[in-house]
Amino acid sequence: MGIKRFKPTTPCLRHTALVNSSELSKVAPCKQLLSSLKSTAGRSNSGRITTRHKGGGAKKKYRIIDFKRDKVNIEATVKSIEYDPNRSCHIALIVYKDGVKNYIIAPVGLKEKDTVISSDSADITIGNSKLLQDIPIGTLVHNVELQPGGGGRLARSAGSYAQLMAKDGMDALIRMPSGELRKVPSKCRATIGQVGNVDYEQISLGKAGRSRHLGKRPAVRGVAMNPIDHPHGGGEGRTSGGRHPVTPWGLPTRGYKTRHNKRTDRSIVKRRK
Fold first, then answer.
1. Which residues are within 8 A (CB) of 174 and not within 5 positions of it... i.e. 6 or more apart?
2. Host H or E run for residue 144
3. What are phi and psi of 19, to 5 degrees?
4. Which residue stretches of the chain have pLDDT < 50?
5. CA-angle at 258, arms to 257 and 260, nearest 5°
6. Domains and their CATH numbers in the chain
């Protein structure tokens, strides 16, 4: 896709860098694959703010994505590559031979009129979906399931991929985007290739207004608050906190481990650090 930069005719344009969307299809989204998306503004069902700095933003519809790819042995043709406001990657509208339409995550190199299929006997080509036990070792994959038939969970954001490292009986060893080595059942399904829109990480919004369009509200620094509002607040004159960085509720940050998921610890062969 490439990154689009602008002449610095205004202060905000000087550092603005956006993804060039000229390769995307100029079509409206498929209506039958849209659903309404209610903005919660970071509030829970009790109305309390549980995720700060959220609210506002442009209205958008949710695109129903086929993460399971369970329509097997039927070829589908890519009709369009589209923008999705709900995720960092682009999506592809595919039409099966029986007329069924679905959205899937668009990998790098997938173009209009390409053919994809979900089958055990499918070729190792971009966009095809296969079981991990049928994929050669060393292949880059994305949209990897954690449980057979549960739908893709791993490596779904822009530019990400997992690599199949080894097969051991009923398990397959994959290397996560973070470098972590994890065991996944070999009956799980994955899609060949790397997720598209690789240049997403180079985006620079340039101005606060674009963040507000995305529903991101301003974040006030803790050292700028009063002591009653934040542990870093207060002090005579300007201070840098005076203690190790903590959250507004006093929990340590920057290196403090918060993962407490013993149920899946046995699946991790090597940590990311």
1. 132, 141, 144, 154, 162, 163, 164, 165, 181, 182, 184
2. strand 144-145
3. -75, 130
4. none
5. 115
6. 22-41+53-201 (2.30.30.30), 220-273 (4.10.950.10)
**Would you say 195 and 157 are in contact if contact means Cβ atoms under 8 Å apart?**
yes
Confidence at residue 1, expressed as pLDDT on a 0 to 100 scale: 67
Answer yes or no: are the C-beta atoms of 63 and 89 closer than 8 Å: no
The pLDDT of residue 181 is 95
CA dihedral 106, 64, 213, 89 (to 10 degrees): -10
State whether the Cα torsion 80-150-51-219 is positive or negative: negative
What pLDDT, on a 0 to 100 scale, did the predictor assign at position 242?
85
First vs last C-alpha separation in the chain: 32
175's tokens: 């290397």
Read off the pTM.
0.89
Beta bridge partners, 172, equal: 167, 184
Q: Yes or no: say if 139 and 228 are a contact pair by the CB < 8 Å rule.
A: no
In sequence order, the 6+-apart residues with CB closer than 8 A to the CB of 20 are 1, 2, 3, 4
